[in-house]
Amino acid sequence: MPMQYLFRLSQRLKPEISVEQYAPIYRAAFEEIDSAPAPPDFNDPFFLAADQNEFVGFFQQQAAYWERVNARRLELEALRPDHRLSRLHEETVKYLRGTLRVMNILAESTIAVSQGDLSTARQKEAEAESWAPVLTNVARKLSNALRQIQDEQPTLFSMLGLPSSLLNEFGVEIEDSFSYKRDVDQILFQVTELEVDDPDAVLESAIQDLVDLGEAAIPHLQTALRNPHEGVRGVVSMALGRMGSPGALVLLDASRDSDENVRLAATLGLALVGEMGMQRLYAMLGDQALDVRLAAANCLARLEGRLD
Predict the structure, then answer these.
(1) InterPro entries under this entry (predicted)?
(2) Of 123, 139, 169, which residue sits at a domain end?
(3) CA distance 234 to 225
(4) CA nearest neighbour of 266 among 277, 279, 282
(5) How many structural domains does the chain have?
(6) Same structural domain, 24 and 42
(7) Which residues pair with 16 in a beta bridge?
């Protein structure tokens, strides 16, 4: 049974606590994330030449941080916050778990260096680096959850009392977020006002305008993938596809969404993101929804036609 399902199930069995009770505990966990000690640098000759006492000191520093992060994780897992914070809560716990996993690997690499086993140390370093995309994706979801609360429920967001210096670590710009949302909304409003005989150039302009907003607009585009207007979903998907890797990650998530319309829209953008998008489109040929399967097949046919 998936760990995520078990986590959500266990959450339902706990009494819900208020935002006022939850905020200081969450704030402490969030601050802990930002205080991580620097990881070992295996290319640093001073680190490699360190004596046993220095290794012990470094290891103790890592271990102390691990204990603090784990304590925060256990605190959060024991809580069920106000339902409006459930997504933020879940993504934060996942981020803490991932951080702990990487720290365990780095601890193993440090022990290997202290024993003179550089081969094992570098293997562990590579293993830790392989977790980077996973943690980056979780951090992006955490950032998106923060932004969504900030945009849709600013009073609730302010009650969390998170320092702007920490929020900026996750790309949550307090001053700019509302302006990006307004820009996205204005562009998409124009799409909803299009007449049937409007030229494709108008849609192309809307797509490019969204791309020009840059990565800071991605959380708002992700939300817009659920817009009831089919044209809006299509324009947003294609804009995400043109944004490269950050947009592609959102589209990959969208292609697994429970909403058929979101998955359908995702096919348009996935056709623009190269080999990774093609691989996902092939997988979507087995989607449970006929419209999604047909859309994926059409996108692949166009792509393969270009390649031939």
Answers:
(1) ARM-like (IPR011989), ARM-type_fold (IPR016024)
(2) 169
(3) 8
(4) 277
(5) 2
(6) yes
(7) 80
